[in-house]
Known about the structure:
Low-confidence stretches: 1-10
Order of helices and strands: EHEEEHEEHEHEHHEH
Largest sheet: 5 strands, parallel
Distance between the termini: 30 Å
Helix content: 40-55%
Oligomer: single chain
Amino acid sequence: MRGKPPKNFNPVLLVLSAPSGAGKTTLARKFLEKHPDFGVSVSYTTRRPRKGEVEGVHYYFTDRETFQKMIERDAFVEWAHVHDELYGTPFSEIERLHNEGKGILFDIDIQGGVNIYKAYPDRTLLVFILPPSMEELERRLRNRKTDDEKTIEKRLKNAQKEISIARDKYDYFLVNEDLDEALKELEMIITLQGEG
């Protein structure tokens, strides 16, 4: 589910995807702190903000009716249903970062990553972040204390599906056991890709 990319578009697109709790957002934040030549694409979502999330920084929080109108206007390069909510990457964010001369980091789900790749196949690098184990993933989800038991079980079930799908779609896989090591591996992947 996607719209059409703007003409004359050529920034580097780095897509990070992972099951909930694998540490994707933390890794993305560390990467951006170290690499100011990249900016993050802020997505729209219909879910409620979590504690500490800021409008326009972490997401643009909106209602389903507004989101649906944006779909009808082809405002999104991609959008998807994830965990019973809607998430979408607006063209306006991609254009904003492109105009700033930055590479673009996407912290999005697999569906979104695949759609970004379809829109910009020559510019997109797909990296999937894996947890060290499913047991560690469950521990991380429980320690977040943001979800009820039913939601945690759903996220664990979805994680297995996402990992299976990513094996056929993503360019690189990175195990996030230690954040500093994961960051070094991500930087190495980008360097290798740039040389290829």
